Amino acid sequence: MNQPTLTYRAEIKKEARLLMVIGGPVIVTQLLQISMSFVDTIMAGRLSPEDLAAIAVGTSVLMPVVVLCLGCMMAVTPIVAQNVGRRAFQHIGKNARQVLWLSQILALPGFLLIRNLDFVFVFMGVTEEIIPIAAGYLKAISWGMFPAFAYGALRHFNEGLSVTRPAMYIAIIGTLVNIPANYVLMFGKLGFPQLGAVGTGYASSIVFTIMFIAMLWFTVSHKPFKRFDIFGKFRWPEKKYLSELLRVGTPIGISSSMEVSMFAAVSLLISTLSTVEVAGHQVAINVAAICFMIPLGLSIAISARVGNSIGKNRPAEARFRGYIGVGISTLFMICTATLLLLFPEGITSIYTADKEVTDIAVQLLYFAAIFQISDGLQVSGYGALRGLKDTKIPMYVNLVAYWIIGIPVAYLLGFTFGYGAPGFWVGLIAGLTVAGILHNVRFFRQTKRLEKEMINTEQADQEHSRS
User: Fold this and answer.
1) Is residue 466 part of a domain?
2) Which residues in 7-34 are b (16+ Cβ under 10 Å) and which e?
3) Cα distance between residue 236 and residue 233, in whole Å
4) What phi, psi does 420 have (nearest 5°)?
5) Structure confidence by residue, pLDDT tens digits, 26-35
6) What pTM was estimated for this model as a whole?
């Protein structure tokens, strides 16, 4: 075995280790945050099928709004990572301040919109007894948008600096607060009225506020951040930095929202079938969402690693780092797919003991297992593209994959051919597979293009120096 092969293997191991050092805490953070939804779902399931269905339907219309806004702020991760790579430290503190401004600028319309989405339920023909509970849940959780968005802004800023452990510890705090807050408000303990699913919304708002305060405290007090002068003095929004955040971030927000809205649209379409099918779908989609947190967490680390290489003007290194991340994400998703295929009944029993709901959920978990690999490929490939700050074309890719392919296939199989919930899930698989392939192909081509441009520039500089 020759030395170059040994060196290449060592580089792969080194990059995989560094990616997990950064991405491991992000994965845990994502899992802890989704565990709040997991807890909400389990506790609502102990109340009634209507409360469980109301959270499913409410979340379906809530998430596209939240993901759109938070996605815009994710731009700060590759921006800061590239600034670190090129050692442009003078811009980093300004990026932090401006993304905080952006978070509150976006939170206001998000707050107002979430409180006025009742018409969507009526338009989609959601079962009447679910609508008032779902609307109350949205109004309750809307109060948490301001701290949630501010927390997201500071978290993504820290991730751009590859500082990921604090968010993990803060998510632990949030999870520990969420359980008793749910218990008190949902079931009417300690003198509070029994609010059911609506209590879940208020509990979430409390948790978001605590998490923001904790993240703000860390960012202000962390000594290595002092050189960035983040909060040295008050500064108003600055067009230059906000423009870059929106230029890079708006396509991220729209792309992420299109993915989430595909799932939301399927959930809303399924909600027109029956309460039992809605509940079964909610169980299966919650399990799939938990599995998705692993590649999603890795994709954030991939963005930081790729962005750092691009800041150093090393596109070949960026491609190497990107595809190590994609490979690790795929490996993880193969493992989760195996678990879903082997233990669907055991997983479903955690959520509900209802026989009808269990039968539907188990059937849908088999479909969830199928799209695990596609889901891992698309989110990790897209994370690598974010590291390049290449977000506009991927947005169009997601539009085609999710809304021109995924939703029509889901509707055709679910309604036209009468396959119901399983038909809708086949549409999800189709959309994710197309996105997974196209994002990874584009990342390869973009890094090759950047590498060629770098070589041409170096050759031109050498010719100029000789002349």
Assistant:
1) no
2) eeeeeeeebbeebeebbbbbbbbbbbbb
3) 10
4) 65, -145
5) 999 988 887 7
6) 0.85
